[in-house]
Amino acid sequence: MSKNKSVSTMMLMLIAVLLFGMAACAPVSDSECNSLRAELDTANAELNRLRAEIATVKPASLEELLRQRRSIRNYTDAPLMQEEVMKLLWAGQGITVAWGGRTAPSAGALYPLELYVAVGNVENLAPGVYRYDPRQNKLSLLKEGDVRKSLALASLGQSSVADAAIDIVIAAVYKRTTAKYGSRGERYVHIEVGHAAQNICLQATALDLGVVTIGAFEDAAVAKIIGMSPDEVPLYVISVGRMK
Ligand SMILES: Cc1cc2nc3c(=O)[nH]c(=O)nc-3n(C[C@H](O)[C@H](O)[C@H](O)COP(=O)(O)O)c2cc1C
């Protein structure tokens, strides 16, 4: 049996366990119900792991990813894995060559973008606001606590922002680019945020995750919630979660 088929068979078995568990919950005692719930949680965690494995076993072609990418605004409560979060951020601004070139092009290689992630529901990663460091491909914690609801309020109440497992916020430091290119540099920064965002969307699609890019938000409120420095301006919020 191929690896894909065996993974699919395991997924079907897990789904059967889930359904059996749900059906069995009604007439049984509290303790039996609790133990079935624990089994369900374990099965769910395994399902998530297998989903991620499937995405790596059979990588989709670029054409398939472009065709599949859609704005998805409804998510399940299942957590993302830390690995998946890192893959999304790497796709946005990861360094791919020794001189510091990144996954997305940048006018004059000046790299004006900064990536933040508001973590709400990620395995082994505490809720909080983190900054992505492309040089080390690592996260550093800026602020503890789940800010997704505040971010959703700042995004004109959009529920996808609160319901997503994470919200990636892309900020720009304009002067890194305008110092060289003058006011035309502003245009370059806006073009660059599109490059980075599309990379993140395609990575999310490759990982079988739901993703939506959000442009409707109050800049000052988002900057404050994230804890940005005064020279940073938030340009995009990208919500990501497991698809329903
Ligand atoms: C610059 C920009 C801003 C957007 N802002 C929002 C937004 O605030 N809320 C939202 O739900 N979708 C937002 N979207 C997603 C669009 O609604 C979506 O791309 C469009 O409906 C086409 O659907 P598709 O992405 O599935 O192809 C935005 C997209 C872009 C490119």
Write the CATH homologous superfamily of the largest domain: NADH Oxidase
Q: Provide the β-strand percentage band.
A: 15-25%
If helices are DSSP runs of H or I spanning 4 or more residues, what is the number of helices? 9
Strand runs, count: 8
Mean pLDDT: 90
Q: How would you describe the shape?
A: globular
List SSEs in N-to-C order.
Answer: HHHEHEEEEHHEHHEHE
Biggest sheet details = 6 strands, antiparallel
Question: Biggest sheet: strands side by side, in what order?
Answer: 5-4-2-6-8-7
Overall tally of domains = 2
* Residues in helix, %: 40-55%
Estimated structural class: alpha+beta
Q: Radius of gyration from the CA trace?
A: 20 Å
At CATH level 2, the architecture of the largest domain is 3-Layer(aba) Sandwich
**Unreliable residue stretches:** 1-9
Q: Which molecules are bound besides the chains?
A: flavin mononucleotide
Q: Enter the CATH topology name of the largest domain.
A: NADH Oxidase
Cα-to-Cα separation, first versus last residue? 29 Å
